Amino acid sequence: xxxxxxxxxxxxxxxxxxxxxxxxxxxxxxxxxxxxxxxxxxxxxxxxxxxxxxxxxxxxxxxxxxxxxxxxxxxxxxxxxxxxxxxxxxxxxxxxxxxxxxxxxxxxxxxxxxxxxxxxxxxxxxxxxxxxxxxxxxxxxxxxxxxxxxxxxxxxxxx
Length: 159
Prior knowledge:
Blueprint lengths: L12 H7 L10 H28 L5 H14 L4 E11 L2 E13 L3 E6 L6 H14 L3 E6 L9 E5 L1
Helix pairs in contact: 1-2, 2-3
């Protein structure tokens, strides 16, 4: 059993299985596999802490409130995080200005996009994909705190 009642076969563990061990075509091999395993463990911790926030706050708050609460939980757990991180637009290998603010960057490894919406839309998914591409990070989570059960409002992306 995973954190917050999430079974081992869901959300996070497919990342661990996909990147475990062997060099894969198009990937950076053993070093990248190790980094992705660490990111998988980190996303597991993040999801557990997000579930804790959701249990204590419920639905109906602004995204910024969930962002603050989750950062508090992350710091209490000894996990480094930054809010509203500026990431430049990268165009043909050059930074050409401020492109966006990532809601939360955890341990310099995972981008969190915090939502409090009726449903996660394709535009939200495209937004996170772009954020990952521009930032050079490989793992991101959309966390929709407006879901009845937070586990229903989680989307994980790996580039």
